[in-house]
Amino acid sequence: MKKLAAEKAVEYIEDDMIVGLGTGSTVEYALKKLGEMVKEGLKIQGIPTSLRTKKSATNYGIPLTDLKEHTEIDVTIDGADEVDSNLYLIKGGGGALTREKIIAYHSKKVIIIIDETKVTKRLGVDFALPVEVTKYGWNATMKSLEDLGCTPELRTITGEPYITDNQNYIIDCDFGKIDEPEVLEKDINLIPGVVENGLFIDLVSEVIVGSKQGIMTLEKQVTSIGEL
Ligand code: 5RP
Predict the structure, then answer these.
(1) With a 6 A CB cut-off, is 35 part of the ligand 1 pocket?
(2) d(Cα 119, Cα 179) in Å, to the nearest integer?
(3) Distance between alpha carbon 156 and the CA centroid of its chain, in Å?
(4) Fewest C-beta in 10 Å: which of 49, 170, 181, 220?
(5) pLDDT tens per residue, range 10-56
(6) Does the pLDDT at position 227 exceed 50?
(7) Domain span at residue 82?
(8) How far lies 194's CA from each of 110, 111, 201, in Å?
C-alpha cells in the first residue's frame, strides 16, 4: 500500500524540479523510484529532510542540493503518522519533524503518501505527538508540555535518549484526542526549549492513500459555507 502511494506521487515530478525528499519507510519507495527515473534521464535535484534520506537518495543516485542554494522547492513528497479530514497531520514518528516542516513550509506543493491505516477522524487518539526539544532544560520543557494536558515521554533508543539530526531530544506527547490542532500547534511552540512539534497545519496540497482497493486521493473537506 505504501509502495502504491509512493509510485503514484512520483508521477508529479518533472524535469528541472527541486524536490523535497521526506523521511520514512513510505518515502523510501519514492526515493527508489525517483532513482530509477534519474537513471532513465530525469533531471531533478532533491533536498533531503534527514541524514537517513540523504544517505538513501545518494545510494539511489538522486542529485542533491540544499536550502542555501534553493529557498523555494517545487514539490515535496513526504509520509505521515496520522492524517485527518482537514489534511492536518501528525508527523515525527521517524524523528525528522523539524526539517520536514521547514521543507514543507518552503514548498509550492506538498504531497503526502500514506497507507490507509494512517487516516484518522481525530488526530492524537492513536499516535502521541512528537515534539523536538533542546537538551538544555528538557525536564522543565517536559513539565510545561504536561501542563498543556498531555502525558509526555522522552523518546529513547536502546535505553538512551533518541538524538535528532539537529542534536536535540524528542518528547512524545500523548494528548488523546486533539480537539483544536491549530491552537495546540502554536501553544506548544510558545514554550521555550521547544524547537518544533509534529502538527502540520495547512501545509499539505494532496494526500495519496494506498489501500487494499488501490489508490485514493484525499482532498480537504468543506463542511459548511462558513468555512469557505
Ligand atoms: C518522519 C515522519 C514520517 O513521515 C512518518 O513517521 C511516517 O513514516 P513511515 O512512512 O515509515 O510510516 O514523520 O519524521
Answers:
(1) no
(2) 16
(3) 20
(4) 220
(5) 999 999 999 999 999 999 999 999 999 999 999 999 999 999 999 99
(6) no
(7) 2-118+201-211
(8) 24, 26, 17
Domain match, 14 and 95 both: yes
Q: Catalogue the E-assigned strands of 116-225.
A: 129-133, 151-154, 156-157, 160-161, 169-174, 194-197, 199-200, 206-211, 214-218
Structure confidence by residue, pLDDT tens digits, 81-95? 999 999 999 999 999
Q: How far is the CA of 70 from the centre of ligand 1 (A)?
A: 24
Same domain, yes or no, for 9 and 61? yes
Average pLDDT, the chain: 96
Residues listed for the chain: 228
Kindly tell me if the per-residue pLDDT of 67 is higher than 70: yes
Position 221 pLDDT exceeds 90: no
Q: Does the pTM of the predicted model rise above 0.90?
A: yes
Strand 151-154 and strand 169-174: the pairing is: antiparallel
Number of separate domains in the chain: 2
**104 and 146 in a common domain:** no
Taking alpha carbons only, the member of 81, 172, 175 closest to residue 130 is 172
Q: Are both 185 and 205 inside the same structural domain? A: no
Domain co-membership, 64 together with 146: no
Q: Are residues 93 and 170 in the same domain?
A: no
How many A from CA of 140 to the centre of ligand 1? 27
In a domain, 223, yes or no: no
97 Cβ below 6 A of ligand 1: yes
C-alpha count within 13 angstroms, C-beta hemisphere, residue 149: 10
